[in-house]
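Obj: model holo form, ligand = flavin mononucleotide.
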Amino acid sequence: MFQLEETNLKPDPFDQFDLLYKYAQNEGQESPEAMALATSTKDGSPSTRFVLLNGVSDGCFIFFTNYDSKKGDDLKENPKAALAIYWPKVNLQIRAEGNVALLSADQSNSYFSLRNRESQISAWASQQSKIVPNRSYLEQKWKEFDSKFEQSVPRPPNWGGFMLEAKVIEFWRSREHRLHDRIRYTLQNKGHWCIQRLSP
Ligand SMILES: Cc1cc2nc3c(=O)[nH]c(=O)nc-3n(C[C@H](O)[C@H](O)[C@H](O)COP(=O)(O)O)c2cc1C
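Output (holo structure tokens):
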């Protein structure tokens, strides 16, 4: 049974994340890529929603969304976010906090091109987080864009990736008597992480 013990922790939290992600997958955790993403407005009003973790690269958690959505507007005003992932199969929670920046247009284009045509059309049809009169309005919009793009579908300019550059990452695992493990990695300077155990 895997444990969060000081003696077997990876020095880099992304290596630790990778290891635990594979462990959760191997144990049959469904949708391990689902993560709650918290943003807030400039004046500090928070909101949270699930997004899919697309990948982890260069110290960043990457996700895709509509830049003009509620979360997109929040991140324009206040480019800081927090995420939380819970894998009940393996009793693990992972949290991260940091600044958020746009992924490059090239990287967003590459990922968009991998999505199936139906999802690409939906990205055009959905003005995410805006009020619409009814379901048929959305379906009509979808058909309009389906007819408009005869062959390949370009990426909508307001759809793409964000990267959360983590400064703090915490791994939590439930233990007996609710005396749980909490291990926090805090970025000191580039590539150097301070590892501390927190009281549950
Ligand atoms: C499991 C799950 C995964 C989701 N993944 C995404 C995603 O990757 N990107 C996205 O924009 N919305 C995703 N959504 C929808 C969001 O939770 C949310 O409804 C949408 O992004 C609008 O949020 P906002 O109004 O706060 O911007 C997902 C929802 C669930 C339940």
